Amino acid sequence: MAEHLSISEHMIPKHVLEAIAAHHRACQDPMAAFFYDLPALAAHGRAMKAALPTGVELYYAIKANSEAAIIDTLAPVVDGLELSSGGEIARACASASPRPWVLSGPGKLDSDMREAMLRGVEALHVESLGEVARLQAIAASLDHLQPVLLRINPALPADLSSRLRMAGTATPFGIDEVQLADAVQAVDDAPNLILVGFHVHAMSHQTCEQRHQRLLASYLERWPCWRALARHPERVTQLNVGGGIGVNYLRPSTQFDWPGLCRALGERLAAMHEPPRVRFEIGRFLSAFCGYYVIEVLDTKVSHGEGFLVCRGGTHQFRLPAAQGHDHPVIHLPRDPERASAGECRPWTVVGQLCTPKDVLSRRQELQGVAVGDLLVLPLAGAYGYNISHADFLCHPRPEQIFVRGSHENREHETRGQRHVEPAS
Questions:
Q1: C-alpha angle with apex 357: 352 to 363, nearest 5 degrees?
Q2: Catalytic pick among 208, 311, 345, 355
Q3: Quick check: 203 and 256 in contact, CB under 8 A?
Q4: What is the Cα–Cα distance from 383 to 334, expressed in whole angstroms?
Q5: Phi/psi at 298 (nearest 5 deg)?
Q6: How does pLDDT run along the chain (425 residues), one tens digit per residue?
Q7: In 3-state terms, the chain is what percent helix, strand and coil (to 5)?
Q8: Which CATH class is domain 14-36+289-407?
Q9: Domain 14-36+289-407 identical in fold to domain 38-288
Q10: For the whole model, what pTM was predicted?
Q11: CA 318 to CA 334: how far, in whole Å?
Q12: CB neighbours (10 Å) of residue 47?
């Protein structure tokens, strides 16, 4: 049996529980919905920003969750936004609080790069020599001088590996370090491009602060050599170190030591002769903690000795556990707490409505007295959850996304298919 952390409804803030209960009462069919705690999201963003050393920036990678309410909540807190498509450009530029933004990622369309320049992109992160040539042609056609960062795929020590490697091996991301001199020369030779820095995003799902500290140290050790390749090294001032900070889904109370990483980074930068302006672009670790996926139990059954809770929704709405390969934590909200407390405690596998055995959200969770009509809450659902899911599979209705903006005496209203919960006036 897999190891699971004992968690309870006490992990859920009162105003979120109130919003869940109010929505459940209003549902005609069994419930499947996402709830996002916007005050908690803003507070978490402010805490992350406050921990940064002087001169280090925090950008939000909106691919983690690009809903308008999420962007509007974080935009006033962070220094800027990291985008990777034309669709994300449109969402970011529609924000109520416009922020500086960059465009990164492989396979950029010419139309996206042109649109980015016309909309005032701060910098583009270049992934290949071919992209340098395309970007120069677009910038020249607009008579525009465009700042760029070169994304590097550096060699890495073996002990700095992670479950999802973006560099240090054969990947579609960035320019191999052995080709960096050629790439720098290509940018220097491009009359409409100006090299302002380098971008390295090597590892994702890092849950160990010490390992990530060593990873950043390896970048900073190479920084003087990378910078010296440029024709005008005095212009090369930025080092974007990406994101990659992981979330511990198995032990939600034990998370990455962000303040510890920031303290170590500050000490290292203070010891450098000409330190770069370091920028993080964080997605998952910013938005994950504010989200809750809430599903209603439709059926309970035992098959070949294993108990199953068949619930409204599933991996077509919340693909994260299947994509990550983990058993997601589950919080049981019974309709009748007294009945549940007197019921049997046994392991249950939580599944959805899809016609595939892969539709599993969590395996062998120890839950007591679960019955049809009870709610199950999957926390840590604010990043890479609904937005990466195959929502049209089986043509089930899409789940509502409810943005909780305050507590006590809440009222609800609909906006573009999303429900917002705000304090009553």
A1: 65
A2: 355
A3: no
A4: 26
A5: -95, -30
A6: 334 444 566 689 999 999 999 999 999 999 999 999 999 999 999 999 999 999 999 999 999 999 999 999 999 999 999 999 999 999 999 998 999 999 999 999 999 999 999 999 999 999 999 999 999 999 999 999 999 999 999 887 766 554 444 444 556 667 989 899 999 999 999 999 999 999 999 878 888 899 999 999 999 999 999 999 999 999 999 999 999 999 999 888 889 999 999 999 999 999 999 999 999 999 999 999 999 999 999 999 999 999 999 999 999 999 999 998 999 999 999 999 989 988 989 999 999 999 998 999 999 999 999 999 999 999 999 999 999 999 888 888 899 999 999 754 343 433 334 555 554 33
A7: 35, 25, 40
A8: mainly beta
A9: no
A10: 0.90
A11: 21
A12: 12
Residue 21 and residue 402 in contact, taking contact as beta carbons nearer than 8 Å: no
Kind and range of the H or E run holding 421? strand 418-423
Residue 9 amino acid letter: E
* 355 flagged as catalytic: yes
Residue 334 CA to residue 347 CA, distance in Å, equals: 16
| SS3 of residue 155 by DSSP | coil
DSSP 193-211: EEEEEEE---EESB--HHH
For the domain made up of 38-288, give the CATH fold: TIM Barrel (3.20.20)
Give the Cα separation of 160 and 215 in Å (integer).
Answer: 7
Q: Where are the domains of the chain?
A: 14-36+289-407, 38-288
d(CA 201, CA 208): 16
CA distances from 39 to 290, 291, 312, 421, 423 (A): 9, 12, 28, 12, 12
